[in-house]
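Page 42, continued from yesterday. The earlier attempt failed because a stray header line got pasted into the input along with the sequence. Redoing it now with the clean sequence only.
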Amino acid sequence: MNESATKELWDRLASRQIDFIRFFYHRFFEHFPEYRRLFPKKMDAQMEKMVEMTSAVLRHSNNIPQIRPYLLQISETHRSFGIKRKDLVNFKAVFIGTAAKFFGDAWQKNYEDEFENAFDNAIIPILVEGLRL
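This time it went through. Structure tokens are written below.
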């Protein structure tokens, strides 16, 4: 993953990062309503955690050894939910689709490629390992 392009894209949001995450969860539950039961009714704290996680992953996206422990910790806290690889793939699809929609004309094909690469070659494999799938 090209840290500069994706980090730049995320940093460009600045004070709108929470709006992006809110939009993501709206679309995620719209596409996959069965996941709603896994989340609290009040999503404010969850959205803050998601902003923190996204920021950490994008900030260190080119340093897998640095984000690996963080992603393993996240997967351990999610293990009890029975998450499978297909759930991570669903998350990835909605996340990338949300980013493309949210950024509109500013979205470029190379961003999509970088996010795909990050999910497929780092994020999902590490989470799968931590989930013990």
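Notes: The chain has a mean pLDDT of 89.
Reminder to self: strip header lines before submitting.
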